[in-house]
Design goal:
The complex is a heterodimer of chains A (about 350) and B (about 290). Helices cover about 25% and strands about 35% of the residues of chain A. Chain A is an alpha+beta fold and about 350 residues long. The radius of gyration of chain A is 24 Å and the shape is globular. The chains are: A alpha+beta (about 350), B mainly alpha (about 290).
Chain lengths: ~350, ~290
Amino acid sequence: MASISLKNVVKRYGNGKSVNQVIHGLSAEIGDGEFVVVVGPSGCGKSTLLRMVAGLEEISEGQIIIGNRVVNDLEPSERDIAMVFQNYALYPHMSVFDNMAYGLKIAKVPAAEIRARVDKAAAILQLGQFLERKPRQLSGGQRQRVAMGRAIVRQPQVFLFDEPLSNLDAKLRAHTRLEIQKLHRELGITSLFVTHDQVEAMTLAQRMIVMNDGVMEQFGTPEEVYARPATTFVATFIGSPPMNLLKNAPGADAGTIVGIRPEHLDITADGWALVVDAIETLGAERLVYGRWAHGSGDELMTIRCEENVPVPTLGSTIHVTPRADRLHYFDAATGKRK
Amino acid sequence: MEKRVVFRSSWLPWALIAPQVVVITLFFFWPAAQALVQSLQQSDAFGTSVEWVGFENFVNLWNDATYLASFYTTAVFSVSVAVVGLTLSLLLAVFADRVVKGALAYRTLLIWPYAVAPAVAGVLWLFMFAPSVGVVSYTLRKLGFEWNHLLNGNHAMTLVVMAAVWKQISYNFLFFLAGLQSIPKSLIEAAAIDGARPWRRFWTIVFPMLSPTTFFLLVINIVYAFFDTFAIIDSATQGGPGKDTVILVYKVYYDGFKAMDLGGSAAQSVILMVIVVALTVIQFRFVEKKVNY
């Protein structure tokens, strides 16, 4: 097992005039045995970052250290990592057993030990009865487990996951999330998990890195990221529906954006007056979309109501009050938390 | 389930395939039927007297040492063409797959030979290797190697194999390149993480995944060497020296149009036809069952 440290990591493609920099000096320390999720919208550089740790992309600048070795110039095979790909990347012409044993055979592990390790991994992942099958004879969920099995048998220092759940249906995804958590508790291997899905990030992460445009916006526990978003980007990216950002809130200085999450707005007898634009019923809760017309222009807001709150009628005016301790203040120019 | 479109009208589908049927009938079924009939006949050189002889033509072939020798020549020729051609084109495709700069120009150049007519290909190589005036034979002589495909049967065979391979390399290359590009990059990356070096990755991942392509090309190349290389042989060696490069299809032509043994020639073409059918059946059987993973 090992820690991972990223020191001022830069990635750029091309050279000369057509340089395209996709990661701008990212630094982070991931502890031994920690489960860290990298989350961000598509194109933010999160997969590139993971592939640099794996050794599939060159590191343009900075250092990546796994354990106590600088791995910049090491081949993927020398980094003692295992990776689960988004499309699983199973070898289609090999049986499940051979897929899992491939790396061990190359490492010249004795046949008996290969058998033992594959059987153990297969037992953990409930793949025992499928060992002789070919990948095409398996369902999506089973293939995903084979991909994890292939990573587990190698007993690496670090697991890398590249959106491994995005090809599963919603139900299986929720189930597999729990399985991955359980696996991590049992094996305790340092893991780096990339996803664009903030629910996945919140539920899996011990700590999460929120990325946008090749920059790390925040690195913290899910609770910290949710309760104290470092930037307006994080505030709107994490949490669904996103945090309301008010550019012209009363009582705030100019140049300050006030943020309030939809669940921290209560419908009250008086307060901010909103015209109800739309209502979405989600079962246990209801989302009310309101427009607040005041001096300097309209502000759009979402309010999340419990099902016991009376339903406002469309077009009517309601009054909401934010919970004072749940207000967030951001600098309008930089987007940073104040 | 595959969804099928069904024609309501009974004559429309027939009308739609009619042009194709006419072409095939005119240029394939009719001549093939003619060959079948002729293979059971014996006629004189001027076609004035025709006699039914049953299977005598086939029996004669069976007893003809030069025909059996031609089988051997064809086997050597087609196996060489297929093996050398596939190996070289796979090698080129692997390199082309890695090229980043100027990839298009590189590929276009590799595809060019396919546009050259077989007879021209034969003549090109003939010029280069002509014992008295060819640049290559001149160079070989400088290096102390006496090249003369007019006298040496092995040299002649090498020459036609080179010409035939060169002509077919583009076709193989295209299929191999397409095959290589359809292998997901992540498979190669997964193998790299699993610790496989490039050489091992190629043999354990890439090559097995190319197996349907390879098998398809193997059959196509053998069929090509059997039938489409007539013009190359005719322009480069005319089957010589002696009978050293007389492959089956060249013997059909030689016996029929030079030796004027029309019945014997027709019998040979019937045998060739059976071989093609057999090859095609084998290909479909295999491609659909064994080689697919």
